[in-house]
Amino acid sequence: MNEVIIEKVNGGLGRRNPSGDMISGLVANGVAVVGGVQLDTTYHLKSVKDAVNLGITESYDTNNKVLVYEHINEFFRLNPSGDLYILLASQTVTYVDLVDKLKTYANKLLVEAEGKIKQLAVAYNPATSVTGTTELLAAIPKAQELADDSFAKHRPVQILLEGKGYDVASPIDFRALNAKNVSVMVGQSLSIANAMAEYNTYAAVGTLLGVVSRCAVNENIAWVGRHNVYGGSILAPGISLTPYDSIPDGTKDTVNDKGAIFFRTHVGRAGIYFNDSHTCAIATSDFAYIENNRTIDKAVRAIREVILPRLNSTVLVDANGKLSPEVVKSYQSLGRRALELMLKQEEVSAFDVFVDPNQNIISSSELKIEFTLTPTGTARQIKATVGFVNPF
After folding, report:
1. Which CATH class is domain 20-274?
2. Has residue 13 got a pLDDT over 70?
3. What are the C-alpha distances in Å from 147 to residues 83, 128, 202?
4. What are the domain boundaries of the chain?
5. pTM (2 decimals)?
6. Phi-psi category of 352—alpha, beta or left, where left has phi over 0 and alpha has psi -120 to 50?
C-alpha cells in the first residue's frame, strides 16, 4: 500500500566512542587545493566531512587521478569513531621517500601527531600508472626502519602499505622480508580498480586501516563474525584486476601463505572479509600478525607511562646491596597496574611481573623489570568431526 515512510538516521549528533587505540595516520601522494588541503601539512580528521571541507572529495580523486578521498571514506565507513591524521605529499615523491625515516612525510606525520598514531597506512599515487612491485619492495625495508626508529623514540606504530603493482600471478613472499611491523594490502575493489588506468594496480589500504583501528588490539581483522567489510566501494573483491572467485584455490593459498592481505568470501555466508592479519615476518615469529604487534605495543606504552615517573629516582637496597623487599614489591605492583586494564579488557590472557632482588643497581644504575604476557589465541582453523552412530 502507498505510505509515507520515515526512517530515523543515526550519527548526526557526532557522538563518538573514542579510544586511543583507534588513532591512525594516512600518508599519500596528492594535489594541493586552493583554499583547502596543502601538501606536506598535517591535518587531523574526525569524519569524512573534515576531508570534504579541505576539498578532498570524490571529484578530487577523479580529477587528479589519485585515490585519497576513497581511502579516507573507507576508513571512516569502517570506523565512524576513528581519529585520522593525514599528510599529502607531491606526486613526484617516491614510495621509498614516503616512508623513509629521514624524509619529512610519514615521519613528520608521526612526530606532529605527538606519537598518538598507532597504525599508519601509506597510499602511493604517483602521476604515472604503476606496473610491477619494484617500488613497493624497496619501500618495505624503509617502512620497517621507520617503525624501528619510532619504537626507539617511544612512538610504536604498525605500518600498512598499499600493495601497488602487485600481480596475483607472481606472488611475492612478504613473509621472507623480515619486516615485522609492516603489512601489505593487495586486495582491491574491482569497481575502483577498473575505474581508470591509474587505479588498475591500487589496493584498498584505507579499508584495512579502518578495520585495524576498529579492532581491539588483540583482535584479528579476519574475524568473520565481526568484520564484514561489504559496502561502500567494496562490493566485488579482487586482486590485480582479477575477481576473487576467478583466482584458483591453489593461488589463493599461496598468496595467503606468503603473507599478503586481501579480501575473500566464505561459502554459505554473505559478505566480504579479510583473509588474515599477516605481517612481513616469518610465520613462526612472535610478531607474525598485526594483533601480536598491537598488543605488545599497547603494553609497552602502558608500562612506560607508569614507570617513567620513577626515572632517576632513589632506590633503597639492603645491607647486602640487594634491592629491598619494599622496592621489589613497589615495582611489581607498579608493573601490574600498567597491565591490569588490558587483562580486564581481555586483550591479554595473563601477565607476570618479576623484579630480581639480586641485581646490582649500585654499580649498574640500572633497574631491570621483566614483563611476560600470555596473549589471547586466534582460531585460524576450527576442526570439527562429524559422523554417524548406530544407537543399537
Report:
1. alpha beta
2. no
3. 20, 28, 23
4. 20-274, 320-392
5. 0.92
6. beta
